[in-house]
Design a protein that fits this description.
The protein has helices at residues 2-16, 30-36, 49-52, 63-69, 81-89, 105-112, 114-119, 133-137, 144-156, 166-183, 188-199, 205-219, 221-253, 291-308, 310-319, 338-351, 355-360, 371-379, 399-410, 424-434, 440-455, 463-474; strands spanning 43-47, 96-99, 159-163, 258-262, 322-324. α6 crosses α13. It is globular, with a radius of gyration of 25 Å. A 5-stranded parallel β-sheet has the order 2-1-3-4-5, with helices on both faces. By secondary structure, the chain is mostly helical.
Length: 476
């Protein structure tokens, strides 16, 4: 019962979070675009509605837009972050759009795994993927011909972005609970009484609708409490179980692809109601909150997103893909607005591997477990290549390597040419004692990192492991 109460509290928090109105114009990062222009030829967009470019609501300004792009299932939607990326860094401006509203890790596995597709009996499979895709392809989103095209696109891409997860647990629970409410006829009489009572008072129409909805939910509460734990297990629990399998499916088809994973963002960060073609709609009204309420909402939201994105962030070290944090993007209702889409596009382009370094090493390429960290230490001059085109990530770090890195970081460490090997404990405590921390919190973080570095083994530290630790020490 305690668990159910906690879950309900989280759901109610999601419902109540409104955030603050953020009004600012986002511009394309032309420096990042120039650095990566022409680096990739085959760009594939995977994910859910936030990735596809689907938008909440229809304003008076975007009816023409919605008439053409009313479904974003496998469509290239103008102004979506995928569209911006393709227009910015792909020479022929091409992309393959295979994102769709409602997509979860379940749908991606269905598309990529023959055995999973043959045995999958999920009642919500392709649930809100807007079957208008029939008009483009002539068959459903999960049709065998689409599945083959999907697999071929993954196999042939040299750049993939995937933004998925919100439907796995948040939306999925909503679908389940909505079905329970629809099936719960026992609450009908209670709802009618509440509605009749409110209509005989001076309460405005919007408040009537909200109270009636609460009455409907309250009347169905016993059934909701019964199905909620199972919905969470099948939602978030399955998301955690599916994530690594889905990522491995992608790498099995294309081991050398540059894979960018876009995390779930803070939907309470409201921006302007922009149309993707530039028209400005009516500003979104956001309830004013006290500083304490705003701070509390922010902390709760951070906690929820940390939990929600954990499978994605954990997978960085397992698989070597690049995780993109969309924090700062603005939303209309539950989807990024035009500024939010451009913000995410910038974050993706800025996080792309440095093409000079990615071309430099034959033994540490994009997709390597520690590629990001090796790229970082080489770009900043903390570590160097061991030959013209190798980094030797699995070789033991030498005392000469360590002294050069510390000299580059601190500017005053004595350089040696000693080729003796460095142990994890020696490396960790040398970094801890020589790299100055900014404040007490930084000192605590550095101490935790030191303990973590030496915890699993007291043996030698490899060059790649050292790159990872230097990256973490210098970004505390």
């Amino acid at each position: 019962m305690k668990t159910v109460k906690k879950i309900l509290a989280v759901i109610l928090t999601f419902m109540m979070l409104s955030g603050t109105l953020t009004c600012f114009a986002v511009e394309l990062n032309t420096d990042a675009v120039n650095a990566h222009y022409g680096q990739y030829k085959n760009y594939l967009l995977l994910g859910d509605s936030s990735a596809s470019g689907f938008r909440d609501g229809i304003t008076q300004y975007d009816r023409d837009f919605m008439a053409e792009y009313y479904s974003s299932t496998y469509y290239r939607v103008p102004g979506s972050y995928g569209d911006i990326i393709a227009n910015s860094i792909i020479e022929d401006k091409s992309m393959t759009p295979f994102a769709a509203p409602g997509f979860r890790t379940v749908e991606v596995r269905y598309m990529l795994e023959d055995e999973f597709a043959a045995t999958c009996n999920d009642p919500y499979l392709f649930y809100p993927s807007q079957l208008h895709v029939y008009e483009k392809y002539g068959y459903a989103p999960g049709d065998e011909r689409i599945r083959q095209a999907y697999k071929d696109a993954v196999a042939n891409a040299d750049l993939i972005t995937i933004g998925i997860g919100g439907n796995d647990w948040g939306a999925y629970m909503g679908w389940v609970l909505e079905d329970v409410l629809e099936a719960n006829h026992a609450a009908d009489e209670y709802i009618k009484m509440a509605e009749d009572l409110l209509r005989n008072t001076s309460v405005d129409e919007n408040k009537i609708e909200k109270v009636v909805e609460i009455a409907r939910i309250a009347g169905a509460l016993p059934q909701l409490l019964e199905v909620l734990p199972g919905a969470i297990d099948k939602g978030y629990g399955r998301f955690c179980r599916n994530w690594d399998i889905m990522i491995q499916d992608i790498y099995d088809l294309n081991p050398d692809v540059t894979l960018m994973v876009v995390g779930m963002g803070d939907q309470s960060n409201k921006g302007r109601n922009y149309d993707y073609d530039g028209y400005v709609g009516e500003p979104i009204e956001v309830e004013e909150k006290s500083e304490i309420e705003i701070a509390a909402s922010k902390k709760i939201t951070e906690l929820i997103l940390t939990v929600g994105n954990k499978p994605m962030t954990d997978g960085v070290k397992k698989f070597g893909y690049i995780y993109v944090d969309p924090t700062g993007a603005t939303y209309t209702d539950t989807h990024p607005d035009a500024d939010g889409q451009l913000f995410i596009a910038n974050k993706i382009i800025e996080a792309l591997p440095d093409k000079e370094i990615s071309a430099k090493f034959t033994d540490v390429t994009p997709g390597h477990k520690y590629y990001k960290e090796v790229e970082y230490v080489v770009k900043n001059g903390y570590m160097f290549s061991t030959s013209e085109n190798t980094f030797l990530p699995d070789d033991a770090l030498t005392k000469a390597d360590l002294s050069k890195a510390l000299n580059a970081i601190t500017g005053d460490y004595e350089i040696t040419d000693n080729t003796g090997k460095v142990s994890k404990m020696s490396f960790a405590f040398t970094m801890f004692s020589k790299v100055k921390q900014k404040d007490f919190i930084g000192w605590i973080k550095a101490f935790i990192l030191t303990v973590r570095t030496t915890f699993s083994s007291f043996g030698e530290i490899t060059r790649a492991e050292a790159a990872r630790c230097i990256y973490e020490y210098t970004n505390i």
